[in-house]
Design goal:
Chain A contains nine helices and no strands. Chain A is an all-alpha fold. Classes of the chains: A mainly alpha (206), B mainly alpha (77).
């Protein structure tokens, strides 16, 4: 999986030096932390929030939260991973303050079953087309577009688990829900995305 | 196992959290039902396509004024 929380370049020794400098309150260390991680965190916030202004605010909130909590960072993970989790939380907080759109039903995108438990639909094989397609920029753009079409509650779970790489438990904590609820929503989100991508395959858009 | 049950167990199967007997039932259905085998492969491709979706997209630049605002906010702390 693409690790979007991967640090740009810092080695662990480098990171330990940076952490010491941050804790000593050195301005150049804060400057470096923000410059080395800012773009990556902005990309994460933008995926979740979908617009640049809110994403920039979330990144600012995230850095300020990180500065305040530096003493509580004990090196159990990479600094970059820790910052990644903080910006995810900041973006989710921002999302909660927005007016919620009425949630569309996902049901038309989920598989339907006959009374005997068999699928109604006959699926076609994507064969190797998916592997080939994902190497193309247009495909990746189309997939991003289809993910954005998912209702928010499902889009967010899919982003956190499959794109941002959070575990089920981490996603549950970030969303204030249970691990089981995350699994159920993730499954429905992937099924809905599968249906949207299947339509694109059938229409030869992929 | 029905196709409905098979479909409901996909997440647990992928995360390797199905108990052994359920796992065997799942794999038996997978090898016996072409339609579910295709659905399962599409589901796995969907995860892979999602993971690849933002690959190679350049990270947006955090503008200089935003960086300055963050550093100024820290100094005020």
């Amino acid at each position: 999986m693409a690790d979007h929380s991967a640090p740009p370049s810092a080695s662990s020794a480098d990171e330990a030096d940076l952490l010491r400098a941050l804790r000593a309150g050195r301005e150049d260390a804060y400057d470096r932390l923000v410059r080395e991680n800012g773009s990556r965190l902005l990309a994460v916030a933008r995926r979740i929030l979908g617009n640049d202004d809110d994403a920039r605010d979330a990144v600012q909130d995230a850095f300020i939260a990180a500065f305040r909590n530096l003493d509580r960072f004990h090196g159990g993970s990479r600094l970059s991973t820790w910052l990644h989790r903080i910006v995810v939380n900041a973006a989710l907080m921002k999302l909660r303050t927005r007016r919620r759109k009425p949630e569309q039903s996902l049901d038309p995108l989920l598989p339907s079953f006959r009374d005997d438990g068999h699928h109604v639909e006959q699926f076609v094989s994507w064969e190797d087309r998916a592997d080939v397609a994902m190497e193309r920029d247009e495909t990746r753009r189309l997939v991003r577009d289809r993910i954005q079409q998912l209702p928010e509650a499902y889009r967010i779970v899919l982003l956190l688990r499959d794109i941002e790489g959070l575990t089920t438990e981490e996603a549950a904590t970030a969303l204030g829900t249970t691990a089981n609820a995350v699994k159920i929503r993730l499954h429905r989100a992937r099924q809905a995305l599968r249906s949207l991508l299947d339509q694109a395959f059938l229409e030869n858009q992929l | 196992m029905t196709c409905r049950e098979f479909t409901a167990w996909i997440v647990e199967y992928i995360e390797a959290t199905l108990p052994n007997d359920a796992c065997q039932q799942f794999e038996h259905h997978l090898s016996a039902c072409t339609n579910c085998e295709r659905y399962f492969q599409q589901y796995r491709h969907t995860i892979a396509l999602g993971r690849a979706a933002w690959r190679d997209t350049p990270a947006p630049e955090l503008a200089e004024d935003a960086i300055r605002r963050i550093l100024a906010a820290r100094r005020r702390e």
